[in-house]
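FAQ

Q: What does a record look like?
A: Structure on top, sequence underneath. For example:
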């Protein structure tokens, strides 16, 4: 016997990249475990220009799944973190280093719920698609000390000058 479709889930839907909503304008991702140290780190990261080093947009969401586009510029220091939803990453353009592995266009990786991870965008940055098993999820940063965030903020400050005028890796391949 066939199962009944979820009444709140669309059976067919088109989404357009031009209509994607920046994460900063959504409620799709909550910060878990907020502390005074983390709140201070967010302020200092903003002052160091972290928003200039990434663009993250929600392309599509429905109950039980979501699709996100993320562009991280060269060397963006993505802090070690977890999400409470499984995620499959697909590299569209550019490169990243995940542990000892160098990944490029067409490569990807899976991160299960609550598994800590980070990666470092390559010299031209990286564009990824993130397929999640939820339409809303959290992010929990593993760095709990001021020293950890001092190091992250220092990395932001060191990389920031390289980001002005940096083009998406997908645009570079068309040049």
């Amino acid at each position: 016997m066939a199962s009944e479709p979820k009444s709140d889930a669309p059976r067919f839907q088109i989404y357009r990249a031009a209509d994607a909503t920046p994460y900063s304008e959504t409620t799709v991702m909550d910060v878990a475990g907020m502390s005074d140290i983390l709140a201070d780190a967010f302020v200092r990261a903003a002052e160091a220009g972290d928003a200039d080093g990434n663009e993250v947009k929600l392309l599509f969401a429905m109950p039980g799944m979501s699709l996100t586009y993320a562009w991280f510029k060269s060397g963006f220091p993505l802090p070690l973190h977890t999400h409470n939803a499984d995620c499959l990453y697909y590299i569209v353009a550019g490169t990243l280093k995940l542990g000892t592995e160098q990944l490029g266009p067409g490569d990807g990786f899976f991160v299960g719920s609550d598994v800590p991870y980070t990666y470092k965008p390559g010299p031209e940055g990286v564009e990824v698609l993130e397929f999640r098993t939820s339409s809303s999820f959290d992010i929990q940063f593993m760095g709990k000390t001021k020293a950890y965030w001092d190091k992250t903020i220092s990395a932001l400050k060191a990389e920031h000058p390289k980001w002005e005028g940096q083009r998406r890796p997908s645009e570079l391949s068309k040049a």
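Q: Is there anything notable about this one?
A: The chain has a mean pLDDT of 93.
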